[in-house]
Amino acid sequence: MRPFTVVSGVALPFYQANVDTDAIIPSRAIREVSKQGLGRFLFANLRYLPGDEIVHPDFVLNRPEYAEACILIGGSNFGCGSSREHAVWALADYGFRAIIAPGFGAIFFRNCINNGLLPAQVTEAQAQELAEGARKEPIKYQLTVNLKTQEIALPSKKVIPFSIDADAQQQLLRGADPIDMTLETVGEDILAFEQKDRKNRPWLHSNPE
Amino acid sequence: MPKTLYDKLWESHLVAHREDGAALIYIDRHLLHEVTSPQAFSGLKEAGLQPWRVSPNIATPDHNVPTVKRELGIQGIEDEISRIQVKTLDDNCRKFAIPEFTLEDIRQGIVHIVGPEQGATLPGMTVVCGDSHTSTHGAFAALAQGIGTSEVEHVLATQCLLQKKAKNMAVQVDGSLNTGVFSKDLILAIIRQIGTDGGTGHVIEYRGEAIRNLSMEARMTVCNMAIESGARAGMMAFDQTTFDYLQGRPYAPKKEEWESALDVWQDLASDDGSVFDAQCSIDAGDIRPQISWGTSPEMVVDVEERIPDPKQSGSSADLHTRALDYMGLEPGQPITSVYLDRVFIGSCTNARIEDLRIAAKVVKGRKKAKNIRQAMVVPGSGLVKQQAEEEGLHSIFLDAGFEWRAPGCSMCLAMNADKLGNRERCASTSNRNFEGRQGYGGRTHLVSPAMAAMAAVVGHFADVRELLQ
Fold this sequence. Notes:
The complex is a heterodimer of chains A (209) and B (469).
Chain A: E1 6-14, H1 21-24, H2 44-47, E2 71-74, H3 86-94, E3 98-101, H4 106-113, E4 118-121, H5 124-136, E5 142-146, E6 151-153, E7 159-161, H6 166-174, H7 178-200
Parallel strand pairs in A: 1-2, 2-3, 3-4
Antiparallel strand pairs in A: 1-5, 5-6, 6-7
Chain B: H1 5-11, E1 14-17, E2 23-26, E3 29-32, H2 38-46, E4 57-59, H3 80-96, H4 111-118, E5 126-129, E6 143-146, H5 149-158, E7 160-163, E8 167-174, H6 183-194, E9 202-207, H7 209-212, H8 216-224, E10 233-235, H9 240-246, H10 255-265, E11 278-283, E12 290-292, E13 300-302, H11 317-327, E14 342-345, H12 353-363, E15 374-377, H13 382-390, H14 393-399, E16 403-404, E17 425-428, E18 443-446, H15 449-458, H16 465-468
Parallel strand pairs in B: 3-4, 3-5, 5-6, 8-9, 8-11, 9-10, 14-15, 14-17, 15-16, 17-18
Antiparallel strand pairs in B: 1-2, 2-7, 12-13
Helix pairs in contact in B: 2-5, 6-8, 12-14, 12-15
């Protein structure tokens, strides 16, 4: 996984509460067995006219000034709803590296971390300010997100702090594979747990392995 | 110090604390389906890993399966991309020796209906599945959570889930539900009260007299929608109702193991004096049949109410205006004046035998209204379908002009051929009324099975209490 350190770029204002993962990627686009190429279906119901071919010119993602956007400014409870990791794969495949919002759906949050996409939490007022800036001067409004210092630098040189859990921050900074980490660091603990559990709850271990 | 049910479940599954504040908890049951598992199995294969254990895993295809032509098995899936996805689940389960209820198996169905039905969901378990409605299984005093595909891979590879402990929230439900008011109305009323992010960062325990008086199936409907209030999980204490439901189910422990399991399960309730980080309460007796009017499960009114005016919605005014526009509704319009195009009775929320019985009771001797293009009943599993047919429920539906389909997620999420057309309006017993959830431009109203059945025979929303009292 690509480590996340510092990312700079154009911000897409998408400041709406409760943007759900069905909106981020509709169910018709999650029938594939691969993670690749899902960026085409990002926000498909808003981005295209029925048929997924003709783009909706008014939709913010289709406006030329946001063509290079790599940071999304969202509203509260961003990514709520379905657990589909396809939502994060689509955002990442499209080119987004960070989502800044006042709050995230819990499953979506973990999915971001597991794919190197930064979910940066700010206050409602800060999200509103960032979205406003990105709306007013799209090209000039370049943000720099620094994960180590947990800060977002605005074009005005103003700096907005963001929060993220320490474990999530570490995983993103290192770009570490969580499975490798678990097997290396606590493999023995899992075996020890199971040994004890076979005595405590034998009914969960009596099926043939 | 007194412990909540969640505290107990968390502590009894704690494998390790990491220095960075996260923990690894052991996973007892992992349910898999075709949509969120293929990339996890691919990852496992690429890394050259095997599942840590095989027996905690159970798989069944549900999201992407057709509800017609099932006698053709996998060849009955007309869409090639979908067929490949279902076949990939079959192939992966065969390769890794994971038990699967395939399309041909009568036990196939919606994963959250199949697990409990088989007794594969047990009290005291940690349950995960790559599906947000895994919260359903919390009805069994289990810690049940929806996870993403990377986490599915992590659970397959390590039998553990990496996370931080959530906070405790209590939703206290006193009193009792009136005739014609069901657990679906209860959970919609709760979400309306606390909001779609009211449970964020928390695990909710539903408790109180009204919860204790619910059947297991009704309890599952409540826990199913815990995620719609943003909670990490929803759960309820173990009691005699849980015991009675589980005894004798295929995957439930037998004989001496059943006895020793019971000793452990008796303790699966929050201790007296437990402290919750957040609390709310609701009186079940005050709840009326609920209908969602908007595009979020918190946008709900009583059957006697009118569509709210965004001018009175405060900071939610913009959201409400957008929702009304999408839904094609006017502020101030009585919800009972809303006519429907389709009715969907199904989903992991409401496709169990009790749901079908109550819908059949409403429909019996009546006909689908002329303006209803389609009224579809999709049982939650092959076994639910079989049971309903033994009871003659399918004949009641068919006689009334409803369609009787084969089990799967169906029109809840529009992955298979069952979808709403643009601007079509549907009374649905499912769990999400998001824009486009049931098909591009589709307009979803969430209701109980009784209210959906009533809408199907009347043609518009109507108070089912008048018929059931």
